[in-house]
Design a protein that fits this description.
The complex is a heterodimer of chains A (about 625) and B (about 325).
Chain A: E1 26-27, E2 32-33, H1 45-50, H2 55-85, H3 92-98, H4 109-145, H5 153-172, H6 203-232, H7 245-276, E3 287-288, E4 291-292, H8 300-334, H9 341-354, H10 370-382, H11 384-398, H12 407-430, H13 432-438, H14 442-472, H15 478-504, H16 524-554
Helix pairs in contact in A: 2-4, 2-5, 2-16, 4-5, 4-6, 4-7, 4-8, 4-14, 5-6, 6-7, 7-8, 7-9, 8-12, 8-14, 9-11, 11-12, 12-14, 12-15, 14-15, 15-16
Chain B: H1 2-30, H2 39-67, H3 78-111, H4 127-156, E1 164-171, E2 174-179, H5 207-210, E3 213-216, E4 218-222, E5 227-233, E6 238-242, E7 247-251, E8 257-261, H6 267-274, E9 281-285, E10 298-303, H7 305-314, H8 318-323, H9 330-336
Parallel strand pairs in B: 1-5, 4-10
Antiparallel strand pairs in B: 1-2, 2-3, 5-8, 6-7, 6-9, 9-10
Helix pairs in contact in B: 2-3, 3-4
The chains are: A mainly alpha (about 625), B alpha+beta (about 325).
């Protein structure tokens, strides 16, 4: 363990590596690996599986937690979709799961709002932030940059366990008398600040805030670790311009998180103060429950500013890792370098920068100065440019490629489609003049579910299918993967595309039923169609769940590099070892995308392969 | 019931598990146990993408035909014409890249599906091409931004005079409209003065308050006259959404927001246009505000100016309802309720 995190010293001529004892991988005489790191005593199972400091185990813990949370959130969405399609109809299954909140099988309006709220919260934070960044940053950062582990394994462990506590509290809020938070996932005060305003703003809201506090702590511990690891622990030769795009995406995502999550925490803390300690940061001139509230002088708009200062970067915290994963998978399976590598890095950075100066587009109609509104219109629409560059680069990567359709590749292509569709409707919403009439309608719901929900979840699935062999040493079944992809792809547009029309017809979101308005009578059948697709999509996820758990135990054993990929994680042994590599750390000689070099016979060239005599590194 | 569901699920899971075992065993015996995609897989999936994208376009087209006519009718406000024009312009602009990129996606996913002996072309970048597809979106977005901000400025610019002042007061879960009365000035208010019949906390010692008029359930506005809505909320954030007028503004406790428009089509004219005698303009709440958020509504009637004046004259002033000594039996009626 002496040089556990030490990076091999730069050797002047890379050809000398073999003669350097630090890099001698295998001792021919004793038939053992030199400099081995898995040579210590068997770990206690608690140390190995529970309070593990190994990034690979932590990544699996994140993934499993996210899958459980995802199933919960998805089930919630099918419950409220039943109510939306057939308002007031009795579904015994609702009573089975929700008990007193669905008396006789009819969903209670407060519970409807609770389901919508917790569905959103879980999906955004626990599945797409924790699940995506937590799983793949942890798994891939050390493996793809050539490090033994994260900079701090201990903080990394804490990061997961804070995430776990946070998840447990969020789920626990379903088991209390007044029900979970129900003010929408954005929990705007005063609705969320005053228990008099709705039952969900009682203890349920307190638990939501406590849960989010733990979540922010988890996210910061994780994020700082990712940043430090990428900056400091890259192996010899792994220049920033040779990093796989996954790492670039995780790196920038971590920076976004570190800069924006503290602002959410401050919003949350001020809300806790308003709720429990009589302050009035967000409260003013309120008369509720038959009396005037003593607290006065604050502004709910302050909360909105603080919330969206995180909230908008959060969209990219969710999306960038998915885009990074897609870049890697599209290149590997196209057997072609990613098109415009530097432009891809540039657009990741541009998107990240712009994401900090666009939050006001969530607040065009809060009474904000119209001039300020036009500034946010300008900055928001600028984001379309780097996003467009990314899409064009994905598509041109496919041009004259040799596509290997693994399930991961299917999801990556699916992501490109949803990213286009959802991104384009963002142009409508970014335009303040148009936002007036579609703000808080189903048009918004359609937009962000396609661009952020579907794209990010596709990135997550793509990542799981692609790196499952790295996580568990076994392969997932491809046929089930194909079935899962096509069913999900059909469901995604089947559910979310018709919602644009609901929004353009003026249906506000978070409505328990649209039957109270005569003008919506002819839209009910759209809701039925959407719900049918939603149930179909939900059932399709069981194909994935089965495949995942079956393959974990019974899948065919993976080879070291099943997708013939260039990146470093495929140079590690199939079985997980402490420290990732037997012997010395690998040395990197080229970028990650030397696929199908015309001068080579193989259609891939691992990053560890030294440049051939007279070979110049590919210009990229 | 729960137990039954669990048992059924567990059995189904077990059955699938066993089936997979058998399936994998047979593949092992045939020597085809590999989870890498084969040429056959690639061919099939490539074709499926083409089929999928074709079906997707058909689905979108079907929705345009089937759902298009159910969208909001033509705008009933002056600025709404700008909104609708801009919306159509933007929808057309975004439809173009939507179709083109998907065509490319469908074509490439089919055409370049992996085959034996096919090698991808090593093509890592092309600065000229990348420059083009950075600059072209930038130009298109400049157009969108320019028209967008121009429209936004037009829509939000307040006309200098001749506006009818109306206060929209939101509370869980209903709306109250207060008309400024003869002086066209809304009287001052304070939430601490909310008491009994004075639901809006109006300061009644001010003369500007006394001629104000309050209505619930249904409000009237005159056609052709700019109406300026001042928004207030009693409890939580609400959002006054009037989709037929392409108008929306949040009602935020502790601050006053405002929004204005000029109605152009009376209720009667719209009913005739849509051949629907039951048609009503409505005000909805678009910001989640509690359990009955979904049913927080008020009807809006757009009158001709004469009808409007007549209707408004019929409404009682606050002086009449709040200051006049209440008849002795009204207390009994309230108690009986």
């Amino acid at each position: 363990m002496s040089n556990f995190n030490e990076i091999p010293k730069e050797t002047s001529a890379l050809g000398n590596v073999k003669n350097d004892p630090e890099h001698k991988l295998y001792d021919d005489e004793s038939h053992t690996y030199l400099n081995d790191h898995d040579d210590h005593d068997e770990q206690h199972w608690i140390e190995k599986y529970v309070f593990s400091t190994d990034h690979k185990m932590i990544s699996k813990q994140y993934l499993l937690t996210a899958i459980v949370m995802g199933v919960i959130a998805m089930t919630m969405s099918t419950f409220f979709r039943l109510q939306l399609a057939w308002p007031g109809k009795a579904f015994p299954i609702l009573e089975v799961f929700l008990g007193k909140w669905a008396p006789g099988g009819v969903l209670d309006p407060n519970m409807y709002l609770a389901l919508v709220t917790i569905h959103g919260t879980i999906m955004v934070f626990f599945v797409l932030t924790g699940g995506l960044s937590g799983t793949f940053s942890n798994l891939l950062i050390p493996l793809q940059i050539g490090a033994r582990d994260m900079a701090s394994g201990f903080l990394n462990m804490l990061s997961y366990w804070f995430f776990f506590i946070s998840s447990a509290i969020m789920v626990a809020s379903f088991f209390i008398e007044t029900g979970p938070a129900s003010g929408g996932w954005t929990v705007y005060p005063p609705l969320s600040a005053l228990p008099q305003a709705m039952p969900g703003s009682g203890l349920g809201m307190t638990l939501w805030l406590v849960s989010m506090t733990f979540f922010v702590i988890s996210s910061l511990l994780g994020g700082l670790n990712y940043i430090v690891t990428v900056i400091n622990l890259r192996t010899v030769g792994m220049k920033m311009t040779r990093l796989p795009l996954t790492i670039w995406a995780f790196f920038v995502t971590a920076i976004l998180g570190v800069l924006s999550f503290p602002v959410l925490l401050s919003a949350v803390v001020l809300l806790i103060m308003d709720r429990g300690f009589g302050t009035s940061f967000y409260l003013s001139d309120i008369f509720i429950g038959g009396q005037a509230l003593e607290q006065s002088g604050g502004s709910p708009i302050l909360y909105e500013h603080l919330f969206w200062f995180l909230g908008h970067p959060e969209v990219y915290i969710v999306l960038l890792p998915a885009l990074g994963i897609t870049s890697e998978i599209v290149a590997t399976n196209s057997r072609k370098p990613i098109f415009g590598y530097r432009a891809m890095i540039g657009s990741i950075i541009a998107i990240a920068f712009l994401s900090f100066i666009v939050w006001g587009h969530h607040m065009f109609i809060t009474g904000m100065s119209p001039f300020l509104g036009s500034v946010f219109v300008f900055t928001t629409l600028l984001i379309a440019i780097p996003s467009a560059v990314k899409v064009f680069n994905y598509i041109s990567t496919l041009w004259k490629s040799n596509i290997q359709y693994t399930p991961a590749m299917l999801f990556a292509v699916g992501l490109v489609s949803t990213f286009i569709t959802g991104g384009l409707t963002g142009i409508i919403l970014a335009d303040s003049a148009l936002d007036i009439n579609v703000h808080d309608t189903y048009f918004v719901v359609a937009h962000f579910h396609i661009v952020m929900g579907a794209s990010a979840i596709f990135g997550l699935f793509a990542g799981v299918y692609h790196w499952f062999p790295k996580m568990f040493g076994r392969m997932m079944n491809k046929t089930l993967g194909y079935v899962h992809f096509w069913a999900t792809m059909i469901a995604v547009y089947g559910v979310f595309f018709p919602m644009h029309f609901l929004g353009l017809a003026g249906v506000p979101r978070r409505y328990y039923s649209i039957e109270a308005f005569e003008m919506f009578n002819n839209l009910v059948d759209i809701n039925v169609l959407i719900t049918c697709f939603a149930i179909f999509g939900a059932l399709a996820q069981f194909v994935f769940l089965f495949n995942y758990f079956y393959s974990m135990y019974k899948g065919p054993v993976a080879s070291a590099n099943p997708w013939k990929s260039n990146t470093l994680e495929w140079t590690t042994p199939v079985e997980h070892i402490h420290g990732n590599w037997h012997g010395a750390l690998p040395v990197v000689h080229r970028w990650a995308y030397d696929y199908s070099r015309p001068d080579l016979e193989n259609d891939f060239m691992p990053q560890t392969s030294p440049l051939l005599p007279h070979e110049a590194e590919a210009a990229h | 019931m729960v137990k039954l569901i669990i048992v059924v699920l567990a059995l189904a899971f077990y059955a699938m598990w066993q089936l997979m075992n058998v399936y994998n065993l047979s593949r092992k015996m045939k020597g085809t146990l590999s989870e890498n995609s084969t040429v056959k897989d690639n061919e099939l999936q490539g074709k499926l993408f083409v089929v999928y994208f074709a079906a997707f376009f058909a689905f979108v087209a079907w929705q345009l035909i089937e759902y298009g006519p159910r969208l909001l009718p033509e705008s009933a406000s002056e600025h709404g014409k700008i909104t609708d024009w801009l919306m159509n312009l933007n929808l057309i602009i975004i439809a173009i890249p939507f179709v083109i990129t998907h065509l490319f996606l469908a074509f490439f996913t089919w055409k370049y599906s992996g085959k034996n002996g096919q090698k991808a072309v090593f093509y890592s970048h092309n600065n000229k091409l990348e420059m083009i597809w950075t600059i072209v979106p930038a130009i298109v977005l400049t157009v969108i931004i320019a028209y967008g901000i121009k429209s936004w400025n037009t829509i939000t610019a307040l006309p200098t005079e001749g506006m009818q002042e109306i206060e929209l007061y939101a509370q869980q879960f209903n709306w109250t409209a207060r008309y400024a009365g003869a002086d066209n000035k809304l009287g001052p208010n304070n939430y601490l003065k909310i008491e009994g019949a004075n639901e809006l906390g109006i300061l009644m010692d001010s003369t500007t308050s006394q001629d104000d008029k309050i209505v619930k359930g249904e409000m009237h506005i005159p056609v052709g006259v700019p109406v300026n809505f001042k928004m207030r909320s009693r409890d939580v954030i609400h959002s006054a959404y009037m989709p037929h007028f392409r108008s929306q503004m949040n009602c935020v406790p502790g601050m006053s927001t405002q929004m204005h428009f000029t109605p152009t089509i009376t209720t009667a004219q719209m009913q005739a246009k849509l051949k629907n005698p039951k048609f009503k303009y409505v005000l909805l709440c678009a910001k989640i505000c509690g359990s009955s958020h979904w049913n927080m509504q008020m009807d809006i009637v757009v009158d001709t100016p004469t009808d409007y004046k007549k209707w408004l004259a019929e409404q009682k002033t606050l002086a009449e309802t709040l200051l006049a000594p209440a008849p002795a039996d009204s207390a009994v009626v309230v108690a009986a309720k």
